[in-house]
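User: structure tokens for this one?
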Amino acid sequence: MRVVIAGGHGKIALLLGEILTRRGDEVASLIRKADHADEVAATGARPVVFDLEHSTAAELAAVVKGSDAVIFAAGAGPGSGAARKYTVDKGGSVLLADAAETAGVRRFVQISTMGAGKPPAPGTDEVWAAYIDAKTQAEDDLRARDLDWTILRPGRLLDTAATDRVLLSTPPLPFGSIGRADVAAVLAEILHAPPTTHTTLELVAGDTPVTRAVSDFGSQSVAEGGAALTD
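Assistant:
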């Protein structure tokens, strides 16, 4: 597979790039800063300097053309204000979707977050509320498109070693945590699993091996609100 990852220097993207290249996929990772190139290249992915906030869909289409799939893993990140949640977390996803449509790349996997799809709780911090709203708008935009999309909503992200044990479900799941390494492993499986298209999935730590969680899900109903998969 030829895969383009937007947000290629993010923690999940670095782990995912290594998993995909190790299994033989060709990965191009979009990065905003050239000084991140060596770290991306060390995973086996090819770094491509590209600024999602200051580029056009036509420019991005030229980058993703010929790919089999694109993954939106970009985010404004900690310390950014509310405005950048919309220009990156929403705007970047919209731009990548526009580019995918222009370039004829149908497979689109979007990393979102648990909490998206509903209004933030009253009293929520302004920046966090903007983040949830931007992710919700990005999801809504993607669902309206004629693409083979999958949306993955992980819970609270941890920098822990891979466990290969997860709980994967259509919403809603009780809020929980998940290691970034396990998120990356699930994304790699989802990328190669067409039955998960046109589906929104939530992900937390659990008891089911990653490969089984994704393959079993594909054999179940993909209607929103399906039951969780457990051992």
